[in-house]
Specification:
By secondary structure, this protein is mainly beta. 11% of the residues lie in helices and 40% in strands. It is built from 6 helices and 31 strands. The strands form 8 sheets. Strands 4-3-5-6-7 form a 5-stranded mixed β-sheet. Strands 10-9-8-31 form a 4-stranded antiparallel β-sheet, with no helix packed on it. β12 and β13 form a beta hairpin.
Length: 438
């Protein structure tokens, strides 16, 4: 890829803060909230301090880590370095002394008080906006098993984001991926931040390309357990799998439509690699592509009306889109000699949805790019961070997960500016799942 075309840097979507207040007195009103709006590049993220909580030490440390990580990857906040804090945390307790937090640049402070009560864990969280004084603007109390501090941390971090933005988050979601390498790969599931990794296949074969049912209750994947690449489905928590498509040749890249009523799949039983629509039970509804080139890797638009896919019908793999019922395809990428693995954002950010994909640059390195399916505008999300591939969007469209040559899986904000390693070890084909139902 020519650097002049695709080395576009990060998506230009900064975050600024705006007060719905016209005077200091008005800013103190309890019903006034600092709301975020998407503005021009270069605007500062909202600065939040997350000190270690008081109370049970082990839980307090974990709560600080989980809440900080969630907010940092939300795309709205800059989480301040705890080593910079000058406040007397023991003296403050759950309160705040505003003059101790302003010197470090904090605009908000989050406090937590975890306590063990019998076999349960109780936590009181408080959020302070320093512009509004020393009274909390958000207080939440939770009680759950002592084994669930992470869950409670995700819940409160989500409340913080909703308080400021009104948006849902991905903090309670999970990521599926193929764990291992070569002929021995198992489908595994973990929390989005890498906690709770568990295997859901376990047949000792090669199990690859997982994808989620929209309900989050099950996963499609391709397995060679019976030597041929067949499409299988298994409960997200593991269990007895069942075969969905066992046609000769390829049965790969199965993805459910957003409403779960059908799935798109790459099949080659008719001699060429083409994309088909199937019922959830595996019956063919329709063949969608018919071209001598190789067509693969379907991904659905959020409303289910279109499918993006990879095709080399013009000589090299590029990203295309077509109506979900078939029809004339439109080529979306025209630069670069090898573009693959499209993932359509499930929700709009800044008023539009985009398709993430991995593309090979002039150095032979794969990186993550996006293309706007309406304008075909390209943006580059990763650069000079090793080779990165197989992007998948968080359910709210504000983050991505991808494989990296640096080792394992990484999650990043939708603009690529903030990044975290979420899994270490051999991993392939990560796919971000939906938020669980309340």
């Amino acid at each position: 890829m020519r650097r002049s075309v695709l080395a576009l840097g990060f998506v230009g979507l900064g975050v600024a803060t705006a007060l719905w207040a016209t005077s200091p007195a008005r800013a103190q009103q309890a019903d006034e909230v600092v709301r975020f709006r998407i503005t021009n590049p270069g605007q500062a993220l909202y600065k939040v301090a997350v000190p270690k909580g008081i109370g049970d030490g082990t839980s307090a440390q974990l709560l600080q880590e989980v809440v900080s990580n969630d907010l940092a990857l939300s795309g709205f906040f800059k989480v301040l370095d705890p080593t910079s804090f000058v406040a007397d945390l023991a003296k403050e307790g759950l309160d705040v002394a505003i003059d101790s937090w302003r010197p470090v640049g904090a605009e908000a402070v989050i406090k937590a008080h975890p306590q063990l009560v019998g076999g349960d864990l109780t936590i009181e969280f408080r959020l302070y906006e320093l512009v509004k004084g020393d009274k909390p603007v958000l207080t939440k109390s939770y009680r759950a098993s002592a084994q669930e501090p992470r869950k409670l941390a995700h819940l409160f971090a989500g409340e913080v984001v909703r308080y400021f933005t009104g948006e849902d988050t991905f903090f309670g979601s999970q990521i599926a991926f193929a764990r291992g390498s070569g002929a021995h790969q198992e489908v595994a599931v973990m929390d989005w931040d890498g906690a709770g990794v568990h295997t859901v296949t376990g047949n000792g074969s090669q199990n690859i390309l997982p994808s989620w049912h929209p309900s989050g209750g099950s996963l499609l994947y391709t397995s060679f357990v019976r030597e041929s690449p067949d499409l299988w489905m298994v409960a997200a928590g593991g269990g007895k799998p069942r075969r969905i498509s066992t046609r000769s040749g390829l049965n790969t890249g199965g993805v459910f439509a957003p409403d779960g009523s059908k799935l798109a799949l790459t099949l080659s039983f008719e001699g060429n690699s083409e994309i088909y629509l199937l019922t959830p039970g595996g019956d063919i509804v329709k063949r969608l592509t018919n071209n001598p080139g190789i067509d693969s890797s379907p991904t659905w638009s959020p409303d289910g009306s279109q499918i993006a896919f990879v095709s080399d019908r013009h000589g090299s793999p590029q990203i295309w889109k077509m109506p979900a019922g078939g029809g004339n395809p439109v080529k979306l990428t025209h630069k670069g000699g090898y573009n693959q693995e499209p993932s359509w954002s499930p929700k709009p950010v800044n008023g539009k949805t985009v398709i993430a994909f991995s593309g090979r640059d002039e150095k032979g390195t794969f990186d993550i790019f996006t293309v706007d399916p309406a304008t075909q505008e390209l943006a580059r999300l990763t650069e000079n961070r090793g080779s990165n591939s197989h992007p998948s969007w968080a359910p709210n469209g504000r983050a991505l997960v991808y494989k990296s040559s640096r080792g394992g899986l990484y999650a990043a904000t939708f603009d690529g500016k903030t990044e975290r390693q979420v899994y270490r070890g051999a991993a392939e084909g990560p796919v971000w799942g939906p938020m669980p139902k309340p």
